[in-house]
Amino acid sequence: MNWLRRNAEALQAVGALLTAAFAIVALVGVKWQLDTSERIARETQARDIYRSFLALSLAQPNYAEPGQCPGFEGAEATAYDYYMEYTLYTAEQVIEMDPAWEGTFEEVFSQHLDWLCGAEFSGYTEPVERLITQMQARQCAAQFETCG
User: Fold this and answer.
1) Rounded Cα gap, residues 86 and 56, in angstroms
2) Do 105 and 57 form a contact (C-beta atoms < 8 A)?
């Protein structure tokens, strides 16, 4: 008992240090848990947005895979333009949430080279503009040779 009285201040200091250490560990754990929850929510939201895009593509297969040199005219050309705007919007939303989706959208955009090579893009997010610019630089010359 005497030992406890003599070392009371030191024991209180150790207790305070342990309390502070546990508090820091708890804060780090909470931060990690919040970051993980946010990442999972973003991944889920990206999948949901992409799922909506896939549903539209299934409903409009002629726009989803228009062929190498599509010849849409009139209302069909307008509808295809809107389909592509929706595709770009989907790419912006999904890539912003998870940059790992860039490869998926490069594959999607490769089905629409005639449209992508015939337009200029600005006002989109940097990752989407970069992706389109890279695709245009690599593939538009061959696309123009094929489709004119």
Assistant:
1) 9
2) no
Tokens of 8: 């009371």
| CB of 86 closer than 8 Å to CB of 49 | no
**Is the CB of residue 125 less than 8 Å from the CB of residue 92?**
yes
Instruction: Give ∠ CA 84-57-40 in degrees, rounded to 5.
Output: 90
The radius of gyration of the chain from alpha carbons, rounded to an integer in Å, stands at: 27
- With b for 16 or more beta-carbon neighbours within 10 A and e for fewer, the 110-128 pattern comes to ebbbbbbbeeeeeeeeebb
Host H or E run for residue 121: none
The first and second tokens of residue 42, run together, are: 């973003």
Asked whether 147 and 114 are in contact (CB, 8 A), the reply is yes
The whole-angstrom separation of Cα 88 and Cα 69 is 20
| Residue type at position 64 | A
pLDDT tens column, 11-69: 788 888 888 888 888 888 878 888 788 888 888 888 899 999 999 999 999 999 998 88
Nearest alpha carbon to residue 63 among 83, 36, 49: 83
Query: Chain-centre distance of CA 148, in angstroms?
Result: 33
